Amino acid sequence: MATRIERGRFLIFSTAVFGYQRRRRRCALSLVATLSCWGVLGCAPKGISHPKTIPVKGKVTYQGKPLTQGTVNFLPEDSWPAIGEIQPNGEYTLSTFEKGDGAVLGFHRVVIFSTDANPRLMPGSPHYKTPKELIPKKYTTAESSGLEAIVEPGTKAIDFELK
User: Fold this and answer.
1) What residue ranges of the chain have pLDDT lower than 70?
2) How many structural domains are present in the chain?
3) Range of the domain at 75
4) Which of helix, strand or coil describes residue 139?
5) According to the model, what pLDDT value does residue 17 have?
């Protein structure tokens, strides 16, 4: 009987210790995840500095006509990417850390996504249809797009004419 009690105490003790360690580990992982999200989403506390960005705007055309929807993504080699939503007139404005702040300085590979997807409809909802690509698929990857840009002081507009 004494061995069962000792085992019981050991189990209670070990569960309490290991449970505490698990909670502590979970808390630490949550903290790391939160800080990472702040950095990725650009909503870090005011004291954290970011690389310098230059405001960049431009226009995307496909076969001579403005692309009416999609996104333009600037992908630097070793820094934060920038993204801009294509407006109905084909124009975009890049954002990295805050809306409209532009892209970090340097060389960027560029990818563009454009489908006829309705953002209000989710897969499985009534009237949903599989989105159709509005531009050739080659423009959706950095390796195949062939699109590049250099962002430097004085850069204002970077236009892309897709064929």
Assistant:
1) 1-48
2) 2
3) 53-162
4) helix
5) 41
Between CA 127 and CA 129 the distance in angstroms is 6
Residues 80 and 66 in one domain: yes
pLDDT digits (tens, 9 = 90+) for 129-153: 889 999 999 999 999 999 999 999 9
Q: Give strand ranges (E) for the chain.
A: 53-54, 57-62, 65-66, 71-76, 82-85, 91-93, 103-104, 106-113, 147-151, 160-162
CA distance 85 to 104: 17
- Both 104 and 68 in a single domain? yes
Tally of CB atoms within 10 A around 12: 10
Residue that has been written with the tokens 């939503």 in this structure: 85
Say whether both 65 and 136 belong to one domain. Answer: yes
* Residue 104 sits in the same domain as residue 125: yes
- Measure the CA–CA gap between 151 and 58, rounded to whole angstroms: 12
User: 15: burial class by Cβ within 10 Å (0-12, 13-18, 19+)?
Assistant: exposed
**Measured in whole angstroms, how far is the alpha carbon of residue 124 from the centre of its chain?**
25
What pTM, to 2 d.p., does this model score?
A: 0.68
- Find, among 96, 101, 115, 116, the residue nearest to 39 by Cα: 96
